[in-house]
Amino acid sequence: MALFLDILLIATSLLLILLVLLHRAKGGGLSSLFGGGVQSSLSGSTVAEKNLDRVTLFVGIIWVISILGIGLQIKFS
């Protein structure tokens, strides 16, 4: 079980990083500092952005559950 949770945590961490980087920049953060503040009409549709939000939220929930599982396993071992 410990190996499964470790692999799940690593996989969801990498996937979460990738999904967050795929999001379109919405305003003046660090992305606008490096030239990402310029809006393009080719940046994607709103349906794709909503689906990306849903997938990111789902992976984030799995990530939190795997962290809680590892924490409970450490506590009760």
Strand content: under 5%
Number-wise, the strands total 0
Structural class computed from helices and strand pairing = mainly alpha
N-to-C terminal Cα separation, in Å? 12 Å
Rg: 17 Å
Helical residue percent band: over 70%
Q: Main beta sheet: strand number and arrangement?
A: none
Mean pLDDT, all residues: 83
Order of helices and strands: HHH
Determine the number of helices (DSSP H or I, runs of at least 4 residues).
Answer: 3
List the helices and strands and how they pair.
Elements: H1 2-22, H2 30-33, H3 46-75
Descriptive labels:
membrane, mainly alpha, translocation, 3 helices, transmembrane helix, about 80 residues, cell membrane, single chain
Gist?
This protein has helices at 2-22, 30-33, 46-75.
Please provide a written account of the structure.
By secondary structure, the protein is an all-alpha fold. It has helices spanning 2-22, 30-33, 46-75. Helix 1 runs antiparallel to helix 3. The chain is elongated. It starts with a helix and ends with a helix. 3% of the residues are buried. The mean pLDDT is 83.
